[in-house]
Amino acid sequence: MSRGKKRTLFVGPFGPPYNGDGVKNSYLRDGFEGAGIDGIQWFDTIARNQPRWKNNLKLIRLMVSANQIIFSLNQNGRYYILPIFWFLGLFLKKRGVLYVVGGSFDKQLAKLAPWRRRFFVKMLNSLDGVFAESFALKEGLEKCGLTNVVLVYNPRKDDGSQWQLNESMRRKGVFVSRVTASKGILVLLEAIVKLNQSGESIDLDIYGPMDAAHEKEVFRWIEEAGGQIRYKGILDPSMVQSILTGYHFLALPTFHSGEGLPGILVEAGMAGIPIVITRFNALPEYFKQDESALFVEPKDSEGLGHAVLRLVNEDELASALSEGIKRVVVPFRLESIIQQSLRLLDEYNWKI
Description:
By secondary structure, this protein is an alpha/beta fold. The protein has 14 helices and twelve strands. It has helices at about 20-35, 50-65, 75-90, 105-110, 115-125, 135-145, 185-195, 215-225, 240-245, 265-270, 285, 300-315, 315-330, 335-345, and strands spanning about 10, 40-45, 70-75, 95-100, 130, 150, 170-175, 205, 230, 250, 275-280, 295. The strands form two sheets. A six-stranded parallel sheet has the order 2-1-3-4-5-6, with helices on both faces. Helix 7 (about 185-195) links the parallel strand 7 and strand 8. Helix 7 runs parallel beside helix 8 (about 215-225) and helix 10 packs across helix 13 (about 315-330). The protein is elongated and about 70 Å long.
């Protein structure tokens, strides 16, 4: 690929805040630049220190001048930015691809009014490629009428930190995600508190941006836990893998409607930490019960408690899950995703 004039524009939110879309895009930027690709101009859709309208105006100017545009957007971004690209394409020659952030874009399309869904499908099919994070999402988008969907996993860096069970981490769990009800935090808090009230001793540390709507309830559970549950703020993405290696297990009992494959589970696999997760959306596509994860049903605090107890009491199971999850995430390494992306762009005859 040629590396001259910056004729390619990348559009999407970057961290902070460290939500799924911002983290993914920051990794993609690091990966492309690490591969020696210097022909991309990076645009942050988060308006920082300026009115949103001014940020949007700058985006439109850049989209007008760019020949090739890479979008990596969540639901809100897709619905207001992609129509601008489609409109510009009526008058100017434009090439585009979309990294889909999240795992429920197909369900979102299906809920649109028929006329609006047909418009968005036509608009998406005008792109060279739509990159879906899971087989389930790829199939769902194809059922909606998309003809250009490619499976491209959610990338993560491996910093080399590895989990190994030792006495200092025993019976210590960790939650790393947005601290909100749909990510399962309230279910997890209830499970841990009830376990400890029954005579067990399980510690839990919580990392992630706190949802104001659930802050009071989260801290009520923390107070009831008597010091065995702690909220520890927001992690820098570069520190996540090494932090995970200090815990016995990670729990993510999510039932978030837009869930695809949460990046934290890929990072858990890089570290090799055993996980307890919900049988929800596409998660069973990636992980197998007793091989790479322990599954529980969404919103089932009792079942979650049983799974946690099983994991912390069975060292052989923990070791097996550690080895299993490391195998799962091999295709998600950043270098592999960047090389796949570059091959696809080359097939589309892009020049970067």
